[in-house]
Design brief:
This protein has a single domain, classed as Jelly Rolls, CATH 2.60.120.10. Helix content is about 15%, strand content about 30%. It contains seven helices and 21 strands. The structure holds 1-hydroxynaphthalene-2-carboxylic acid.
Amino acid sequence: MNDAPKLGTLEELPLEYRTALTTTNLVPLWPSLRGFLPHGHPAPQTVPTHWRYSEIRPLLLRAGELAPIEKAERRVLVLANPGHGLDGLHTTGTIYCGMQLILPGETAPNHRHTPSAVRLVVEGEGGFTVVNGERLPMNRGDLILTPSMNWHEHGHAGSGPVVWLDALDLPLVFSMEASYAIEGAPQRVRNAPDASATRYRRAGLVPYTSLDTQCGDYPLLRWPWHEVRAALQALASDTEAGQPVHLAYVNPQTGAECLPTLGFSALMLRPGEELAMPRDSASAVYHVVEGRIDAQINHTAFAAEDADVLAAAAHAKVRLANRSTEKPAYLFKIDDAPLQRKIGIYESFPA
Ligand code: 1HN
């Protein structure tokens, strides 16, 4: 829709008037109104971007040599969307992602902060995160939550590198000027299996006492990949071709999305399957857990493989196709739909 009247520019205003405004900390709205409020649809800065794990991995391992953990605290390479400028730490407008490396015997010290995080384990064995004293093993594909202001520290008791994808609502919290961290002493670790193996073993069953006691906002902090994968396969057996085989990670006590800001979900593409994702107002990051995928984000095509990451802006058209005609492919998706829903701006559009 370009039939809107053209608004006046800054240059049209007398210099003396502009100077008077500037010295008074005033700015005329009309020259920048369209920029802040485009007509018809948003004009995201986020550009469709593909990060290849085959390119990240050697650079991350090099960081293992160049940046001792004591000097880095968190040894991370940020997946910076070039549309936001590389220093802004944006993967999309609201989502921060990075790939983190921890080497055998290292610990990433205990802290807590206002932004919320999740980790999706990419490679290696023996890594673990401790959240509020609960020891959460990190196996490939596992999802681990570290919600806002929950103590967390990472360790590695195995051999070989351990790598995971971090996703945080950092751009949001930072834009609120509310981003900060507190350092803490190492946690006292409860030597017991985490809640995914004890209190929340199966969908539809919760501890009886949780029915009339408060169990906290985050009863479950870990979703083991082998269970998510099996659930996707079961859902696929009862989902028509062309319909997404798509599961959301939710709070087992409330059924709500597991974090207030970001949403997490897992997708399975059956052999040879091609899927047009329902277009919506949320921005998203896709991570290939297993398989080879052709992705189209608006007008850009990407060939993504195991552990690669893709960024799609709000309102983007996304098509995904499994390149294999024999094996299923699996994707992990992060989006900002939960926050959009809460503030009443979430929209989904017909295909
Ligand atoms: C953070 O605390 C972690 O705990 C990783 O592993 C990445 C990026 C920005 C701010 C805090 C972690 C982070 C982070």
